[in-house]
TrEMBL record:
GO process terms (BP): lipid catabolic process
Signal peptide: 1-18
Name of this chain's protein: Lipase domain-containing protein
The Lipase domain, residue ranges: 51-267
Provenance organism: Anopheles minimus
Amino acid sequence: MGALVGNVFVLLFALARANYDKELSEVKLYFFAPSLNQEQDVESFEPPPEIDLRRQLKVLIHGWNAERNHFSILPIRTAYLVQDAHNLLVADWAPVANLLYPTARDLVLPVSERIGSILRNFIERVGIDQSQVHIIGHSLGAHIAGNVGRSFGGKLPRVTALDPAGPLFEPDSPDAVGPDAAQFVDVIHTDGQTLGEDNVRGHADFYPNYGLSSQPGCETLDIVTLHGCSHLRATGFYAESIPLPNNFIACACSWEEISRMEDICLPDLRETSSRECVPMGEGLDPSARGTFYTRTSRVPPFGLGYYTMSGVSI
């Protein structure tokens, strides 16, 4: 039975790719740097001497119905460029992302294959080691990020999934992001059971405000944006964590406790606690394991830092 399912999956993958060859051929990766006048298509880009190729390479992948300049991914891109401590690639798979959602979802694997191939050719050509690569994806792009990681045999150091898309994904979907995508996979859930999902997908899964909608401050906007506000909170949280790596202190909490929305999930951090507490986002140590909970503010800055308390949400 398993072999049959696998064969059907391969056949669907082949058919999906064949029907959308033109759109897939237009998927691109762009190099961004403060020293460059504009982004550069990496397939033809020759980094100038002022680009330090020894830096860690961040690769951002947007979600459905978006593109490289979309507001969903722009805060993260901007935060990295302002910090100017890493090299930055941004995927643009808009020709596929702008198709109907079921079609875009079916094309997750061929899009991942295309991005992975461009990335591999680029880093080999310019001399960047795989150990420098960190892939970050949002929504449907989170699952693509996972599959790009798998295209490197799961040997990349880190994949970060920001509110992985939920519709048309099952807990055992073979093309969903998972812990086999990289040596370390961290996930931030903000719209579970709606546009996102609440399945545990990584080595470390974070559930700010229990990972569900409406996220604080999104109560009205979720109605207007059809849950877009809560779905996008994951990118806002991550962007904020780049310049402020200790702004989101999350504490270990079992999945059962999180799903029951128990107050015990977040102890008062000013008192001795037996629960492991770690920074959610960019500053997370790859040794983190398990599921974690934190609270946030309703407005930026969203992080409450070390002053987060179990009974407080601003």
